[in-house]
Amino acid sequence: MRRQFLTGLAAGLATGLTTRAGFAQSTTPSGKPVRFIVGLGPGSGADTSTRFIAERFSKLTGQPAIVENRTGADQVIAVQSLLQAPPDGLTLMYITPSPMVLTPLLNPATPYDPLRDVRPVVYGTRSQAVIVTGANSRFKTLQDVLTEARAKPESVRMSNYGHHYRIGGLSLQKATGAVFNHVAYKGAAQANNDVIAGDIDVAITDTGGAMPLIEGGKLRPLAVTGPNRHQFLPNVATVKELGINYELIVWTGFAASSKVPDAIAQKLEELLLTIIKSPEYKEYNDKQGGGEIVAGSGAMLRALIEAETARYREMGKTMKLTQN
């Protein structure tokens, strides 16, 4: 059956078929669905974005598509699910810096090598974080936060969730000389709720998830972490504008097993880029928080992963980067 799949897909590529009928000819006769694996739970940004793309993938190709949430172990379970599937192009995974860069660096026992075992297929988006405090917080500016965290080390409580935002907090310390009391959370929702309640002083958090709370007057944005101001927060300065050499960017994409044949991976890249470049996806993305749509190739994302792996490995020599 795998030979039939490869033969059919190669024929479709050779004739330039990108239509519903063309992809249908390139899939298995059994009509097995394409699986989109997500390492985070239902309702997360990763989950909703993947469901949007999976639905359009099915419409575009005529191939059934399902989303499977494989949570736990810092997304190691999701990657293992990807790698245990047959390398036939019918299994994809939503990827971010955590499973592809940070988890393997922080945990030497990680049972996969992302650069060896995983093949990036498409570079979807990149987005910045926002540094927030509660609406009733004593902190009015980021400088207020940093001044106190320097004068009274560990007096300012900062929430973090996942490797990326935890390292983002440590990097801010290194860049400013502040020392925070880091409090770990499983996700952004509870962390943001505790900032609103005043149990946590400040958070570096996902912009998309924070936007409704900012708009509702429950969180106060102090700065954004990208190279430019956020399109939905034009009056909020970047950290760099405040004189601090600091950026924190989160990228997203999709990947397959590195054992998937080139022809199949290239076809998947073409189809996913068709969706990500569509006006429909732009409208959806804007509603979710306005991350920048990159719509880049798998090779472009692999180069980024290689560069970030080297950067964080070097950072680990001067910072205490270990698992929570």
What's the topology here?
Blueprint: H1 2-14, H2 20-25, E1 34-38, H3 45-61, E2 65-69, H4 76-84, E3 91-95, H5 97-106, H6 114-117, E4 118-134, H7 142-151, E5 157-161, H8 162-176, E6 181-185, H9 188-197, E7 202-206, H10 207-215, E8 219-224, E9 249-257, H11 262-276, H12 279-287, E10 292-297, H13 298-315
Parallel strand pairs: 1-2, 1-3, 5-6, 5-7
Antiparallel strand pairs: 3-9, 4-7, 4-8, 4-9, 4-10
Mean pLDDT: 89
Biggest beta-sheet profile: 10 strands, mixed
**Unreliably modeled segments:** 1-19
Termini Cα gap: 44 Å
Instruction: Look at the structure and give the CATH class of the largest domain.
Output: Alpha Beta
Instruction: Assign an overall shape.
Output: globular
Structural class, from helix and strand content? alpha/beta
Beta-sheet strand percentage?
Answer: 15-25%
Q: Output the helix-strand order.
A: HHEHEHEHHEHEHEHEHEEHHEH
| Tally of helical runs | 13
CATH topology of the largest domain: D-Maltodextrin-Binding Protein, domain 2
Query: What is the CATH-assigned architecture of the largest domain?
Result: 3-Layer(aba) Sandwich
User: How many separate domains?
Assistant: 2
What Rg is obtained from the alpha carbons, in whole angstroms? 21 Å
Number of strands: 10
CATH homologous superfamily designation of the largest domain? Bordetella uptake gene, domain 1
- Portion of residues within helices: 40-55%
For this entry, give a set of tags.
globular, D-Maltodextrin-Binding Protein, domain 2, 13 helices, alpha/beta, ten-stranded mixed beta sheet, disordered N terminus, 45% helix, 324 residues, 10 strands
